[in-house]
What we know:
With 474 residues, this protein is of the alpha+beta class. It folds into four domains: 4-47; 87-175, Pdz3 Domain (Roll), CATH 2.30.42; 179-363, 2-enoyl-CoA Hydratase, Chain A, domain 1 (Alpha-Beta Complex), CATH 3.90.226; 371-464. It is 37% helix and 21% strand. It contains 16 helices and 19 strands. The strands form four sheets. Strands 3, 4, 5, 6, 7 and 8 form a six-stranded antiparallel sheet that branches. Strand 10 and strand 11 (190-194) form a beta hairpin. The longest helix has 21 residues, at 22-42. It is globular, with a radius of gyration of 26 Å. It starts with a helix and ends in a 9-residue tail after the last helix.
Amino acid sequence: MLPTLALLFAAQAAPPAALPDIKDQVEAIRKFVAVYAALSDEAAEPVDPNPSIYGGALPGMLRGLDPHSVFLDPDQMQQLKEMNSSERKGFGSVVSILPGRVFVLQTLPGTPSAKSGLSPGDEIVAVNNISLMGLEPEQLIQLLSETRRREAQIYVRRLNTPRLLSFQLVPENLAAPSVDRAFLLPAGPGYIRVANFDSKTGQELKAAIEKLGGAALPGLVLDLRNNPGGSVETALEACSLFLKPGTKLLSIRGRSKKEEEVHAPDGGTPYEFPLTVLINEKTASAAEILGSALRDHKRAILLGNRSFGKGLVQSVYPLSGGSGIALTVAYYYSPAGANLQRPLKNVQIETPDSPGGIAPDETVFPDSQNRLRAVLDMSGSFTAFATELVRKGLPNGPLPSTVYDDFRIWLSERQIQPSVSDWSANGEWLRSRLQQEVLNLTQGVEKGDEIELARDPVVRRAAERLKPATPAAK
Length: 474
């Protein structure tokens, strides 16, 4: 392994002609070393290298290259390793995140959450003495992601319990499959959601397809929405499940990297059933590689919104002390030659004038939100009411119609009083959402998701596109 300074030097050893030549770069590094040596010898207090080098000089040098060339501290390097595996550290609870509120939907058997006594329907109000009230969903996600990596104190409000409950949770390594949903839709085709790409995604995707019927499936909706990417190798493995051996999957081009083409390996027997793929603005990187290969070879119909546009090839170089750098070294191109990278401003790498990402064959928007739906979702009303229903005991099967009248009275008692027209116009959605929450609490979020996705307009349209065309009348 190269020493830190030598590696940083090597990363910039062949700059564009407009940048300083090699001698100037060497001189710049010497000046930095001289300044740091002077600080170490003469400063009133000893110089801590962590904030000055690891928190300042190294990130600062990389910041101007592009948003994805970054310095990784040991904790971030460990997270990167976890992303490429099918295990994550965590507590084993599935939560619903609303502005300023987090509800427990499910605790997985044998996990720290279940063993501690957390229950579905509990509301987490504070983590390590940090109140969740007032935090936006993005802030909550960040806080919870950081919390699950170390021991945490959780404070919970439980229905019909006058005081807050406290739980001390110690994270454990938990199985985290990247293919997290697979079931048959009411219309007949299969539905599979790939949340990210790790070392086992290709195997998990094939196993999920076989579970749903394999080659006999009448069609498949493959959901890549909100998939941030991950392992490119497993995305290519997923491509080979649907494309014939020898098919071009992508090409790689870069200043210091010889152009390379990647093809589907020999010996595979791809599935031939009809395929639709769902994408959105958070579909990125490896997920875009899969989507663009299927689109360019007309193997799938893409629905949703234009994807994020991350087509940069990253190489990770380990440094001393468990740290490292992620460095952009080339670009990914679709089989048809499109640069997948979106334009970037104020960076040193060249980016295309095209919008980047992949455009869907048909733009389809998710279900629109209105005032009543927003109020009910953000207030946590569904989860709270469903928790009461479950604790009272419910018969199996669809909820009785009287439950919805009880729900309206329950809302009125809490100063939520929708008009008759609003209640009627949203009736189907209300029934579906309440049934979903009950299933979340009683059978797990997988069953609840089946209800949610069955009403999702993007999924429904994708299933429609899989139906064979009706022959025209003669």
